[in-house]
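Customer ticket, subject: "Can you confirm the structure for RNA polymerase subunit sigma-24?"

Message body: Hello, I'm evaluating your service for our small team and ran a test protein. I'd like someone to confirm that this is what the system normally returns, since I don't have a reference to compare against.
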Amino acid sequence: MSSPGEERTTAAVRPYVITRGRAGSSRDALPLETLVMASGSALPPHMQPEYRRIADHCQGLLSVAEVAAHLGQPPAVVQVLLADLIDWGHIVARPPIRVVKRKRADLDLLRKVLDGLESKL
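Agent reply: Thanks for trying us out. I re-ran your input and got the following:
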């Protein structure tokens, strides 16, 4: 047991233990706004509890950030665990939609179309 003045350090070690010391995964890091959902496949009985909690929370679409908040774990830890579950087919991910910057040529073309339509009226 620790003495009254000693501080416990297990909370700092726990995320490291959960990911088995991994800071990354086999895939690119999942952006926090990536939407994830359970695939419906049954998890093996030997799966660690954190994986099960993720699958339970992901019955509907949730962002990676929301999953981290529900679990009370750092987003980096949840990203590693989610990547594992995606690789194993237990979670499906929908990457965020990338916003494409408008090109000047697109605006010019739209202006010309508008001018053409106005001249017909």
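A couple of notes from the result: DSSP finds five helices and three strands in the chain. The two ends are 86 Å apart (CA to CA). Feel free to reply with more questions.
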